[in-house]
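name: query_chain
kind: protein
chains: 1
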Amino acid sequence: MNGTALQDRPSASASWRIALPHSAAAVPVARALVRTALAELEHGADSDTAELLTAELVANAVEHTAGDSPIELVVELLPTGCQVEVHDPDPAPPGHLTQPDTKDPDPWQEHGRGLLLIRALSSSCGHRPTETGKAVWFRLPVIPTQWNPA
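structure:
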């Protein structure tokens, strides 16, 4: 039988919540937290993709919100996958997260692909209002382990 047996999946959820500085220094810290969380629990979500998409969310929060209020990173590991949220103080929804942009990104620009990556690589994504601004999130599924005959 190929695929993941139910007993191979993490049986309980775990979550982390951390305040990050409102600066570019938050990006590598957020990536490291996601990498460590997935590795320590031997979670089956794709760590490389989780790190990349987390970096995009945190970089967007730093770049597109004013002020120096901390950004909050929430990582939740579930039996079916992981969800990462980034909370920031700006209540405005992120542009083109759930609706694709009608034009292609300019190939000569360094910016403009983050939300496209999040839409393309996550199983789902979105945003919701919070008491202090908004939360932008994505989900990744557990990658089924391959059956290895003994």
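note: Confidence is low (pLDDT under 50) at residues 1-10.
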